[in-house]
Amino acid sequence: MIVMSIERLQNGTYNETEDANTLAAVGALSTGTSGDKETLYLTAYVFSTLMGHESVSDPALLAKYKTIATQIREQLISSKFPFKSEVSQRRKGRLETEGAGGAGAPPSVAELVQYLCRFHCNNFSIHDSQLFTMAEGTFPIGALFNHSCRPNAIVMYEGKVQIVRALEDIEVGQEVCTSYVDNGVQRAERRQLLREKYFFDCLCPRCGDEPQEQQQQRHDDPTVEETAGSLGKKDRMKKTGFRILDDLIEGSQDGVDGKVEGEWLTKQFETIILPGARSLQVVGPSLKPPSTITRVSFTSYIIHSLVPLIQTNAPSQVYTERLFEIYNILQSTPHCTPKPFTTTVMTNATSFFNTCLEHQSWNLASKIGTFVLALYLMIYPRHHPLVGLHCFTLAKSLWNDVDGGMTSVRLSHEILKLSRNILRVSHGTKGENSALVREVEEFMKTVETELGA
Ligand SMILES: [Zn+2]
């Protein structure tokens, strides 16, 4: 990771001897640990290269930061921390520390405001292995990874250590991207969040307007334009790949804003979600998904199409191609409005699932959880930790579902295989987070004993 960071730094070459002194200037705010000198120095250097976007930040926020900075500076002065501010002069242009005072003086208020702005634009929510947020922190090297709403890597934590884990096979030369926002929120909301906090417009595989190769092809070949023109504007604008996803989950294509009434949701559960979940009972690696999909069978279609690929660790390309087929099929299938698989429905269903778990309504929870799984598989990368964690909870619910008999126990085992394969990637097989993988494996043994396997 460090080598990659150095290559991506464009405004100077990291020099350990010189940059070691940067610590004096940013020492009080550095997140490195004293146990690893190189990481600490590099972290401090990379921090000095991060963007703070002060010039475009909200004036109210800047005023707040100025107040905080003034207080911090007073505390730094009274702490008598041994700052080496002469370093600042040598680093002129990078840290802009002129006026910071003589030797031994702490950073100026302006510098501290700059640091706070860098924190604001580059901080991470630190979460535990169950994805519960525990704290906020700035990890300068981790902040160098660019964003994608369809990331191929995920940020995880083991204590105070940040770990960037690949979610899929990544080719040599392919960019490694993490996600700065929840991939389960709608495009407009993601765009707003990214613009407000990180000051950019996302052009990732989900958000971009047109695949680059298509633009290039039209540019190079005039007959493509002619053909496209004869197809009409609608077909020309037809999206491919991940670009279809947001149209599907937004439910705004038909002019409906995706707002869901409780009554409508209940009806959907009765007519679509519950029958869909029942068909999971025949899932297995040897079974093929149905060749057609109706408006009531999309849950089982998604589950049948994708679960065997996850259980058998199919290559990323095979999985992605299957996913695109599903998007195309869902796009060309007539659905009721609002659509039954928008993110609004997903949020409602997730909350309903949690309520069922709280009330130990295992049968209903298992069905709702299956529906949620189908939506998660449609929206999140397959090895996303959220998907693995959901599978584990769903498997427990299925196992507890006495009404479902041995069928539920068998289903629980299928879902556990899914959970194990996903968590092995998202949480790893070594280190603190792998405890969860072992927990899943232990539970699998219990279920297998019951199945007599
Ligand atoms: Zn995006």
From TrEMBL:
<dbReference type="InterPro" id="IPR046341">
    <property type="entry name" value="SET_dom_sf"/>
</dbReference>
<dbReference type="InterPro" id="IPR011990">
    <property type="entry name" value="TPR-like_helical_dom_sf"/>
</dbReference>
<dbReference type="GO" id="GO:0005634">
    <property type="term" value="C:nucleus"/>
</dbReference>
<dbReference type="InterPro" id="IPR001214">
    <property type="entry name" value="SET_dom"/>
</dbReference>
<protein>
    <recommendedName>
        <fullName>SET domain-containing protein</fullName>
    </recommendedName>
</protein>
<feature type="region of interest" description="Disordered">
    <location>
        <begin position="211"/>
        <end position="232"/>
    </location>
</feature>
<dbReference type="InterPro" id="IPR050869">
    <property type="entry name" value="H3K4_H4K5_MeTrfase"/>
</dbReference>
<feature type="domain" description="SET">
    <location>
        <begin position="1"/>
        <end position="181"/>
    </location>
</feature>
<dbReference type="Pfam" id="PF00856">
    <property type="entry name" value="SET"/>
</dbReference>
